[in-house]
Write a structure and sequence with these properties.
Largest sheet: 2 strands, parallel
Number of helices: 2
Order of helices and strands: HEHE
Strand order of the largest sheet: 1-2
Strand content: 5-15%
Oligomer: single chain
């Protein structure tokens, strides 16, 4: 298991990411981590996932719609 993980890390950080046209990261922390892994910062773009509730005005009220035929998809990333 350890060897498999190390091989996958080698392939990802030495071959796939350095030869990508664009690398999207989820946070400034991940951006800095990728720089540490020697990924070109010019290739990376931070795309935060989530909502800053402090920036949403209280006056904006949206009523949830009950649409029973819709499926809910949840994506969790670490």
């Amino acid at each position: 298991m350890l060897v498999k993980g190390l091989v996958e890390e080698l392939i990802l950080y030495r071959f796939i990411l350095p030869h990508s046209d664009r690398v999207y990261v989820q946070s400034d922390f991940m951006f800095n981590y990728m720089k540490y892994k020697r990924i070109n910062p010019k290739l990376m773009m931070v795309v935060p996932i989530g909502v800053d509730l402090d920036k949403i005005k209280e006056s904006v009220q949206i009523e949830p719609k009950d649409i029973p035929q819709w499926q809910v998809l949840l994506w969790l990333a670490s």
